[in-house]
Every structure is written in structure tokens, then in C-alpha cells.
Specification:
Rossmann fold, 282 residues, single chain, 12 helices, 9 strands, globular, two-stranded antiparallel sheet
């Protein structure tokens, strides 16, 4: 791994380990998760939308639905573990949750114990460019909105394919730029998350083909990206006084609100997109 790639990984780790980010995500999302979601009504909460996307993704997995408690799943970039707990609770599957942030992982382990699910979920400190598991170890590799943070997304996908069993599934979501995105919309977003680019749907299609995967489905959820960031902005404004009392810095909140506006506008005007990919390893 190059020094530049290592720098990107450490930047992401420092951000998610920070007091401001930790308090922001646990307060605004309620502490279970901080992924994008599917909204059906204006009054839907972030929690409801987050649960809806997990269930939608799981509906694409034959292995989860057929194997249930026999399935072994790897969640790459698992955050606070809401997804891992939801899947373990509803399918009885064994989950390995690999995540960069030690702050998030501590909370993840605590919540697993509190909810009586720690026997089903193993939380591992690490990054998804170097997955510390043997070849052909998992029935499903899963990820939500995490691959964008990697300096080498092809390496992440290669690792996912390596650890999948034959017949295993790679199911993930990722915020992406559209094929014809305007730079003036993207630049403020990329500067905010310290990246030079986002993936496109065609990148993932080509990468999957190159790695020998079969594309089972892709569900375009572009409208939900705009819905999501608009909802997070609304909740951030409503909770701003509480966040300040919890010593989240005003500078962080100001930059977060502007960033949420940029993401929502990018989705609304067709420069950003989001969706569910389901690949299968032959």
C-alpha cells in the first residue's frame, strides 16, 4: 500500500474516531447505524429508512434466505453494527463485522452484549483493503456506503471476491457519481471527504466482470440519496442545540450542514446516485 493510500485510510479513521463525528452520528441516527436509507413517507425516521434498506438488500440474497443460521456473512465497514445485529437477529447467521474505527467498534461490541447477540457477531478492527480471513470463508460479503472511502476500490472488491465461497454473494450499496456528473457539483463533496473521485455504476459493473463475478441485479435508488441527505439536514438543524450541549463544535456542524446540502443537491440534479448491487461468485 502506498503512502498516499495509507494517508486516505488514516484520514477516514481519524474522522470516525473523533468526538464530533461519534456524537453526531449516535445522536442524529439514534446510535444503531449511520447508513443511507429508503424513505416512503416524509415523516419516516432515519432509523426506519435504515431498517428498510437492510431488508431490501437481504431480499436479494439467496444464501441468507436459504441458509439462514448456517450462513456466514462478512460486513465490510460495519459502523456501529446495526446491520449486523439486524441480520443476526432475523436470520440467525454468523456475522464478522470488519471496521476501521475503534470508537465505533467499542460501541458495537457493547450493544451486541446488551442485546444478547455477541455470540453471533465478531467485531474486528481492520480495513477492507486487507481482509484478515482465508480464501472462500464466507457465504455473503456485505457492505453499506463504505467503499467510497477506500483509496483502492478495486483492491476492496478483489478481497471480497477472495474470501467468498463459490456460489457466494457480494451485496453492497455505495454513493456514486453519475457518468456525466458536473465537476462543480462534485468538487465540494470530494473536498469534504478527502477523495479525488467517487465510483460510478459502470465502474462496479466492469470491476465485477473483471473479477469473474456474475451480476445478478442492480437497483438504482438515486432519488433516495437526495431524500436521505435532505432528511439528515432537517434532523441536524432540529438537534443542533442538543449537539452543541454535547460539545460538538459549531465549526463541525456548519461544515456538516453545508456538506449535506451539497449531497442532496447533487442527487436531486443527477450528479450523484446510489443503489444496491448483487453479484455472485461462480
Amino acid at each position: 500500500m502506498s503512502k498516499d493510500q495509507e494517508s486516505v485510510i488514516q484520514t477516514a479513521k481519524k474522522y470516525y474516531d473523533s468526538h464530533d463525528a461519534h456524537v453526531f452520528y449516535t445522536t442524529v441516527w439514534g446510535g444503531e447505524e449511520h447508513h443511507l436509507g429508503i424513505y416512503r413517507r416524509p415523516e419516516d425516521t432515519l432509523f426506519e429508512a435504515s431498517r428498510r434498506i437492510i431488508d431490501r438488500m437481504a431480499s436479494y440474497s439467496r444464501n441468507l434466505n436459504d441458509f439462514k443460521d448456517k450462513a456466514r456473512l462478512l460486513d465490510l465497514g460495519s459502523g456501529y453494527g446495526g446491520t449486523a445485529r439486524h441480520l443476526a437477529r432475523n436470520f440467525g447467521c454468523k456475522v464478522v463485522a470488519l471496521n476501521l474505527s475503534e470508537t465505533e467498534n467499542r460501541r458495537h461490541r457493547e450493544m451486541n452484549r446488551e442485546q444478547g447477540l455477541d455470540h453471533l457477531i465478531e467485531v474486528v478492527d481492520g480495513n477492507f483493503e486487507q481482509v484478515p480471513y482465508d480464501d472462500r470463508s464466507f457465504d455473503v460479503v456485505w457492505s453499506q456506503d463504505a467503499f467510497l472511502h477506500s483509496p483502492d476500490r478495486m483492491q476492496v472488491l478483489s478481497e471480497a471476491v477472495r474470501v467468498l465461497k463459490p456460489g457466494g454473494e457480494l451485496i453492497f450499496t455505495d454513493p456514486m457519481q453519475t457518468e456525466d456528473a458536473y465537476a462543480e457539483y462534485l468538487d465540494p463533496i470530494l473536498q469534504r471527504i478527502h477523495l479525488s473521485s467517487l465510483a460510478t455504476p459502470s465502474f462496479y459493473f466492469r470491476a465485477g466482470e473483471k473479477l469473474g463475478l456474475q451480476l445478478r441485479s442492480f437497483e438504482n435508488l438515486q432519488v433516495q440519496l437526495a431524500n436521505h441527505y435532505a432528511k439528515v439536514l432537517e434532523d441536524t438543524i432540529d438537534l443542533e442545540d442538543e449537539l452543541l450541549r454535547k460539545e460538538v463544535s459549531q465549526d463541525y456542524l456548519d461544515r456538516m450542514k453545508q456538506g449535506l446540502i451539497n449531497w442532496s443537491m447533487g442527487g436531486r440534479y443527477g450528479h450523484l446516485t446510489w443503489g444496491i448491487f448483487c453479484f455472485q461468485k461462480p
